[in-house]
């Protein structure tokens, strides 16, 4: 995934750290073997090269991610789209480095073979149909899924108190050894906005935006990079869904983010460019959570 993983934990008695580390690496390798955009021999890589009309029976992890990705794609009206690998590749964010922006013609060619509406998926059989030339890119959701998967792996080892991170996407379970929750500072890219610290108690957070990696997020609807979203954080019970929604909200206009996050009752903090400065927006659900935490019993 081009990043690192880190886990802080309060281990149960007899916890074998070396065995846990090996299990974590094996679990991540299994996920990458299924969904890596950079590995030609991954299941995703083989799907992207498949002939038009070919059906693939997906492994369980891949299937879970595709189902969630298609649901968020539909609910966000395509602001999140798992089927824009051709556009991602055209802008040089895929496995092949490109030293120039794509031409208008190249963008239109990539858009012509992209889009989640071209996918056919059968949940009961876990079969996915290649429409022809379509390329999946699960970068906006697979990292979150991997965080959830490692959290579940630790729970299976009777380790229920941990903070799991992959590339800035986090899940907090249980409590720290000192009895505090796992405190996390949301990414704040500008001094115009006050820092915000949240307690990840049985919660996940994912952040998308451009202040770290530049304009790397592609709007699936236009095929162009997004230039207004500095950092959008979503708090959710699932890191996978937080990841996908953060990607969607980093594409949408501020007004559209406000409407959709409010409709979906999601915990969102968005920092966007506004003229020569920046503006912060906190969704009603997150504002209510903050107010509840700030209440002091009489």
Q: How do the strands and helices of this protein lay out in sequence?
A:
Layout: E1 5-9, H1 17-35, H2 43-49, E2 55-57, H3 60-75, H4 85-90, H5 104-112, E3 120-122, E4 127-129, H6 142-156, E5 162-166, E6 169-173, E7 183-185, E8 197-199, E9 203-208, E10 229-236, H7 239-251, H8 254-264, E11 267-274, E12 277-282, H9 284-294
Helix pairs in contact: 1-6, 3-7, 6-7
Basic shape: globular
**Beta-strand percentage range:** 15-25%
Determine the CATH superfamily of the domain at 164-294: ApbE-like domains
Q: Report the C-alpha radius of gyration, rounded.
A: 20 Å
Characterization of this structure:
The protein has 298 residues and is of the alpha+beta class. The chain has a domain at 164-294: Roll (T-fold). Helices cover 36% and strands 19% of the residues. The chain has 9 helices and 12 strands. The strands form 3 sheets. Strands 1-5-6-9-10-11-12 form a 7-stranded antiparallel β-sheet. It has a 3-stranded antiparallel β-sheet with strand order 2-4-3, with no helix packed on it. The protein is globular, with a radius of gyration of 20 Å. It starts with a strand and ends with a helix. Mg(2+) binds at residues 140, 243, 247. Its cofactor is Mg(2+); Mn(2+). InterPro entries: ApbE, ApbE-like_sf. Keywords: FAD, Flavoprotein, Magnesium, Metal-binding, Transferase. It comes from Novosphingobium resinovorum.
